[in-house]
C-alpha cells in the first residue's frame, strides 16, 4: 500500500459532500468534502504501488477541467486511470447536484 | 417487464433499493470515517465504512433497519468495525423493540465470514451479533438475505442460520466451509474445489431451498426481494430450524458417513424421522476436554447418549451445574470429526443437552449453571457436513447457549485447549464469562495457518509477520487475552495432567466467573484490556451509534 497527496490551487465552492465507489477489485471509493483553503487536495491510499506519476497525470487533467475548493480522499484497490477519472466525474456531479 | 437486478447493486444501493423511497438514512456512513485501524498496518487499503452500511428507513411504512455487507470489500469479511456496526445496531434495535418501538432488522449477507486479517475480532464479534439475533427473535422476525456474488460462508453462515427467515437466489452459495478450505483441510477426494457442479449441487441456492435450509428462493429482482421480505414479515412464527433437534439428529443417524450422499437422499432423511440410533463405539480417546471434564466433575458418568459430547450435572459452589465438553473419539461414526471437531452430531447434541437443562429448569426459580469445557480443534470439514448444513448444527448449539443465558442460566466457558473458528462459536463463545489456562499450547483462531495463507494469498511467513502488528491475528492465548474477552488467565497449571491443586485453582476462578451474575456478553467490552487497547474500535462504534440513533 502507498499513501501520498497532491494539492492544486482552486477557488470555486462545491454544494455538498459526496461519496462514490467501493474499495473492491479494480475499483476505488472517493469521498469529496467542501474545502476552505482555496485548493483541491487529493489524498490517496492505493493498493498498487509505484504509480504516483500516473495519479498525478489523472489529477492534472481533472483540475484542468474543474475548479473546486475541496478535499478529495481516494481509497484505491487497483482501479485503472479510466475508472479513476470516471469516479472523479461521478463524485463531482453528486457534489454539485441540487437537491 | 424487465427485471431490475438486485445482485448487481453494491451494498449501499441494495439497502436503498429495499427501503421506501426517500426514507433511507445512513448511520455511521463514509464521512464518519470509522474505518478499520487493523488493515493499513498490514498494507491493506481500508474503506471509509469498513464494508458495512447501516440504513434506517421504512418498508411499506414499517420501521426497518437494513444492515448491508459490502461483498466487494475484502470479500465481505467481518472485522472489528464492520462487525461491531452490525452487533451495535442489533443491540439498539433490541432495546427499542423491548420498549415497544417496533423496528424490523434485515441483514444482507454477502460475506466470506471472519475477515482473516482481523481473525479473532471476527470470531468475538460474530458471537455478539448472534447473541443479539437470538434475543431479537422473541420480538420481531430477523430477516436474512443471501443475494449472491460472495454468498455466505463461515461464522456469518452460522449467523444467517439463526435468522427467522432466509431469502436466497439461485446464484448465491450458502455453507460453513468454503470449497477451497475443505479441499485444503480434508483433501481433494473429500471436496474438489474446482468442481463447479458439485459446489452448486451442495451449497447453491436451489439446493439449499430444496433441502429446506432457506425459506424463500427468489429471482434476482428488486421487486421480488421486496415481496419476499413482506412475506417474511407476514409469516406466522414457525419453529426455527435451530430448534429442530430431533429432526436433524434423526437425519444424522440415518446417514452413512462413509458414503457421499446425494441431495435427494439427505432430503429423504430429513423428512422421514426414525428412532433407531446406530451404535457408536466409545474409544475414550485421551484429550484435554476429557481430562478436564473428569477432573472438574470428580469423574462423573456422562448422561449424554453420544460419546463425542460429555454432559454431567454436579453440585458446584452450592448450585447444580451442568458441565459440557466436546471430546475426541477415534470411533466417531463421522470420519471428519474423530479429533474432537464440532461436526454435525456434536453441534446438535450440544443443543439437545443445553435445551434439556433449559426445559427442566423452566419452572424453577433457580436455574442451573452451565459450564462449557473448551478444547475444540475446529469444525468438521467434509462433503456430508456441508450437504446436511453443518452451519445449522453450529447455529443450533449457539442458539441454545444464548437462549440459556436469556432464560437466566449463568453460562461460563473454560478454555483448556484449542478454541478454533466455528467450533469455538458453537461451543464457548456464547459464554458471558470466559476463563483460560495460561498454556502456550493453546491456540485461539479463525482458521488454520495453512488455510488462512491460501485464502488471503500470503505466505505463512507473511502471516506470522502480520500477527506482530495485529494481536487479533495471533494464535496464542496471551494475545487473545489482550482483546479483553477473557476474565483471567490461570498460571502454572499442567493442562494435560492437572493435580489437585490445579483443579482447586481452576474451580476457584470458575466459581468467581459463575457468581458474577452476568447474562449478556457485555462484560467483554468493560475489562481493562478491552478499554485500553483490545476493543477500542468496538466501543467507539457503539458510542457513535448511540449519538446518531433516535
Q: How would you sum up the major sheet of chain B? A: 7 strands, mixed
Number of strands of chain B: 14
In angstroms, what is the radius of gyration of chain B? 22 Å
Oligomeric state of this protein = heterodimer
Summarize the structure.
The complex is a heterodimer of chains A (99) and B (550). Chain A is built from 2 helices and 5 strands; from the N terminus they run E-E-E-E-H-E-H. With 99 residues, chain A is of the alpha+beta class.
Protein model, in words:
- The complex is a heterodimer of chains A (99) and B (550).
- Chain A has helices at 52-65, 81-95; strands at 2-9, 18-21, 28-34, 39-46, 70-76.
- Chain A has 99 residues and is α+β, with helices and mostly antiparallel strands.
- Chain A has one domain (2-95).
- Chain A has a five-stranded mixed beta sheet, with helices on one face.
- In chain A, helix 1 (52-65) packs parallel to helix 2.
- The longest helix of chain A has 15 residues, at 81-95.
- Chain B has 550 residues and is of the alpha/beta class.
- Chain B folds into two domains: 11-174 and 214-238, Alpha-Beta Complex (2-enoyl-CoA Hydratase, Chain A, domain 1); 279-545, 2-enoyl-CoA Hydratase, Chain A, domain 1 (Alpha-Beta Complex).
- In chain B, helix 6 (196-203) runs parallel beside helix 7 (205-211) and helix 9 (245-254) runs antiparallel to helix 12 (344-360).
- Chain B is globular, with a radius of gyration of 22 Å.
- Classes of the chains: A alpha+beta (99), B alpha/beta (550).
- At the A-B interface, strand 3 and strand 5 of A face loops of B.
Topology:
The complex is a heterodimer of chains A (99) and B (550).
Chain A: E1 2-9, E2 18-21, E3 28-34, E4 39-46, H1 52-65, E5 70-76, H2 81-95
Parallel strand pairs in A: 4-5
Antiparallel strand pairs in A: 1-4, 2-3, 3-5
Chain B: H1 11-18, E1 25-27, E2 52-59, E3 62-69, H2 80-98, E4 104-108, H3 119-136, E5 143-146, H4 155-160, E6 165-169, H5 179-186, H6 196-203, H7 205-211, E7 216-218, H8 222-234, H9 245-254, H10 263-271, H11 288-296, E8 309-316, E9 319-326, H12 344-360, E10 369-376, H13 383-387, H14 390-406, E11 411-420, H15 421-426, E12 433-437, E13 444-445, H16 449-455, H17 460-469, H18 477-481, E14 486-490, H19 500-515, H20 528-534, H21 536-548
Parallel strand pairs in B: 3-4, 4-5, 5-6, 6-7, 9-10, 10-11, 11-12, 11-13, 12-14
Antiparallel strand pairs in B: 1-2, 2-3, 8-9
